[in-house]
Amino acid sequence: ETWNMPTPYPDTNFHTININDFAKEIAAKTNNQLDIKVHSAGSLFKHPEISKAVRSGQVPIGEFFMSLANNEMPVFGLDALPFLATNYDEAKKLWDAQKPVAEALLDQQGMMLLYSVAWPPQGLYTKKEIKTVDDLKGLKFRSYNATLEKFASAVGAAPTQVEAPDIAQAFSTGRVEAMITSPSTGVDSKAWDFLDYYTDIQAWIPKNIVVVNKSAFRKLDKATQEAILAAAASAEQRGWELSKAENTKQVQVLKDNGIKVISPSPELMSSLKAVGATMLEDWKKTTGTDGEKILKAYQ
Amino acid sequence: MRAFLDRLYRLSGGLAALFIVAITLLVFAQVLLNLVDRLAKLFTGTALGLTIPSYSDFTGFFLAAASFLALAYTLQAGEHIRINLITSRLPARLQTLFEISSVAIALALTLYMSGYMFLMVKEAWQYHDMSSGVIAMPLWIPQSSLVLGLAVLALALFDNLVLLIQGKPARYTRTDNDPLAQRGGE
Amino acid sequence: MNELYLTLLLLVVLLAFLSSGLWVAFSLLAVGWVAMALFTDAPVGQILATTLWGSSNSWALASLPLFIWMGEILFRSKMSEDLFTGLSPWLNKLPGRLLHVNILGCGLFAAVSGSSAATAMTVGKLTIPELAKRNYPEQMAIGTLAGSATLGLLIPPSIILIVYGVATEQSIARLFIAGVLPGILLLTLMAGFVIIWSLFHAQQIPAETEQYNFTEKLKRSQRLIPVFLLIIGVIGSIYAGIASPTDSAAVGVVLALVIAWSSGSLSKEHFIAGLMGATKTSCMIAFILVGSAFLTMSMGFTGIPKLIAEWIGTLQLSTYTLLTALALFFIILGCFLDGISVVVLTTSVLMPVVTQAGIDILWFGIFLVILVEMAQITPPVGFNLFVLQALTGRNIWIITKAALPFFMVMLLALLLIVIFPSIVTFLPNQM
Ligand code: NA
Ligand code: NA
């Protein structure tokens, strides 16, 4: 059998590399009985459509950025909340707490969670050096969802909407002056062409998840199902290691291309974490008991 | 009936045009706010952060609405592109036959698309699908414009099919005085 | 070789639908459906619905109706007339004289409009009757317009570059900048061709009748001011950091309305006619784009593109052989499909091959757009041919013949950017 698998990121992205290995492992374990064809870079379904395509069985399997579903299910947006989990150990712990709730929500939509892999910690990209939180005041800050918009306003920055293909142009012409994203994305967009500073604030560690359509999964024989689950387990483990290695590697690439990589001052970090704490309180209000359950398990 | 149908296509087309005006206003307003921000930055050193929340999402929704709501109106104006080079050289009776088969295929496809689009909207409504931007917009609302546009197109195609079967000329072969309209035909 | 027969079968089905007179958008949707229903077990209807929605709600594409609307407004204003009056005194000494108004006018209009049909229509509406009145050779009047109007696609802003940028995730701003030098190159080559032709056919170019002194020339040039204001407004909004290239289309519409209003040519009738014209044209293009998106999706499910890409990959063609093969492929495809469909249909198929061959994706975008420009003037389906047919009342074969030399000029430009890729990459590399 052949399964088409849409994914949002290009072939060179470490998530996609990991997924290609995942597909190979399944092929090997099932003696090519299940062939997963990976359609990278949104070439089959565009990113916002992927989860819906898996849900309704248009494709049996897919990958997407978890917090993209934040507006539908705020539980999925928890890992994009600033300064809740800021290193891999905390991110793993948060995921362990998030997982049962996420699984239950996916189950209601006819999907089953296979595995999740974290992005490298998100850092702050700017043209000028940021020493204290006051340096962010009045800077045009790229925000593409409600969480980032709130964050920008809370630190006194001016939220600005810039679409992904337009980032370089927007920075060059001054339409935007600061953004928070991973070192991988910074390298992909050649941030050194238009930016000078990367402050390693490790604001949050978002995740991608790989999901499978429940009824497509049920139709497989027991051995194939087990092969998928085993491959998923090893993909998750491999993915998190890849992510850590990716972080070190891409920060170095940023440095090599002349971006000044700065460790944030304690003063900056304490102000940012205070903002994070306020935002967490707001978040709790939107999710009710589910949110409390996760946070209790996490803290 | 004739008058009602023609008015319906025009109404749908007019609605589409309003969405194009809305795109212009929305995007231009954001550009003006950017300008104010730019000037504020220049004179006071800090930007204000004037944004129309999710303006790019709404621009996309308006474009989808404009494109689909205009389908029937554009059809009737003869602006949808087709190649008549071969069929136009055939004897009149064969031409009519090809004309009927084209309209029938188009109608079948449009009904098919309307049906599945309706199911998609229903699913988006059941699962409370939302846009992912700053403003959480229930997706079934903008998606409904596609169902509506396709339904009107289906009606227009059916309308023409009936005319052709009755041996009358299809309405979309009319050409008006706008020379740009010639581009659609051949 | 099952896939080869499959591909051929689908091609035959597409040609059959197209030549039976089925609308282009429906033909694409129908072939997509046939391919998916017959050769995959995917749920076609649901996937079609997802594609309709996913490909039609796009912020980046929203500039398309806006640029078309801007062209419609200008077409009904006095601006095109101003353009001719302002430019003509300066061209009297050049061999070919007023024929260059077509080329220059198209070059200027191309800088404010994203589409070649709008460029041909707007410039031609004024120059064709004017050139005929002055007894310029009809064949050259038609040819220069047919050829140079295609620059609407290459000189920024450009609808087709936005489509390509979205499909290949390239920066639209960099693509726009990359189009500037090749656009100027094409303008120069076309003007050069007119000069050479006129030297050989001097007796066919009417003698100059009106003489202008320098003050008169300057006075007449004042009429070009609105054109320049519009260009500065649209391009300036991008570089002042207040608008993305997509947003700048809205600036263009508003400025065009202001210019039309201040010249007293913005009546209620003109406003509505322009808006409805833009609504129809952009609906027609969007529908074809949606059809192409579904055919592309269907190709993704059948796996044919990957196989073709792998097949071309195994041929181990040298870069130049590959480019020649691709150019031929696009010229043939361009005879049957409009430019935007060609780009949307083929980019996803060919990008892996192009990338694998080490070809710069940005450069390839410009290469592709020049080929698409050529497709505008090849029969049986060529947008500019249709526009000129409407403008002149001549049949499509006469127009095609008149446009042929300019097709060859574009081929030469294509060759030049292959030999000197920096014509494309120089400006974006300065960003
Ligand atoms: Na242009
Ligand atoms: Na053509």
Structure report:
The complex is a heterotrimer of chains A (299), B (186) and C (431). Chain A is α/β, with parallel strands linked by helices. Chain A has helices at residues 14-29, 47-55, 88-108, 146-154, 167-172, 183-188, 214-218, 222-256, 266-298; strands at residues 2-6, 35-39, 61-65, 111-118, 123-126, 140-142, 158-160, 178-181, 197-199, 207-213, 260-262. In chain A, helix 3 (88-108) crosses helix 9 (266-298). Chain B has helices at residues 2-44, 55-69, 71-76, 92-126, 140-165. In chain B, helix 1 (2-44) packs antiparallel against helix 5, helix 2 runs parallel beside helix 5 (140-165) and helix 4 packs antiparallel against helix 5 (140-165). The longest helix of chain B is centred in the first third of the chain and has 43 residues, at 2-44. The radius of gyration of chain B is 21 Å and the shape is elongated. Chain C has one domain. Chain C has helices at residues 2-19, 24-39, 44-56, 63-76, 79-87, 99-110, 116-133, 138-149, 159-168, 172-200, 214-221, 225-239, 248-262, 268-302, 304-314, 319-336, 339-356, 361-375, 383-392, 396-419, 422-429. The longest helix of chain C has 35 residues, at 268-302. The radius of gyration of chain C is 22 Å and the shape is globular. Chain C starts with a helix and ends with a helix. Classes of the chains: A alpha/beta (299), B mainly alpha (186), C mainly alpha (431). Chains B and C meet through helix 1, helix 2, helix 3, helix 4 and helix 5 of B and helix 1, helix 2, helix 3, helix 4 and helix 7 of C. One sodium ion (NA) is lined by residues 110, 113-114, 152, 155-158 of chain C.
Return the structural class of chain A: alpha/beta
Write down the overall geometry of chain B.
Answer: elongated
What is the helix/strand order of chain B?
HHHHH
- Count every beta strand of chain B, where a strand is a DSSP E run of 2 or more residues: 0
Topology record:
The complex is a heterotrimer of chains A (299), B (186) and C (431).
Chain A lengths: L1 E5 L7 H16 L5 E5 L7 H9 L5 E5 L22 H21 L2 E8 L4 E4 L13 E3 L3 H9 L3 E3 L6 H6 L5 E4 L1 H6 L8 E3 L7 E7 H5 L3 H35 L3 E3 L3 H33 L1
Parallel strand pairs in A: 1-2, 6-7, 9-11
Antiparallel strand pairs in A: 3-10, 4-10, 5-8, 5-9
Chain B lengths: L1 H43 L10 H15 L1 H6 L15 H35 L13 H26 L21
Chain C lengths: L1 H18 L4 H16 L4 H13 L6 H14 L2 H9 L11 H12 L5 H18 L4 H12 L9 H10 L3 H29 L13 H8 L3 H15 L8 H15 L5 H35 L1 H11 L4 H18 L2 H18 L4 H15 L7 H10 L3 H24 L2 H8 L2
Helix pairs in contact in C: 1-2, 2-14, 3-14, 4-7, 4-13, 4-14, 6-7, 6-8, 6-10, 7-8, 7-19, 8-10, 8-19, 8-20, 9-17, 9-18, 10-18, 10-20, 10-21, 12-13, 14-17, 15-17, 16-18, 17-18, 18-20
The structure holds sodium ion (2 copies).
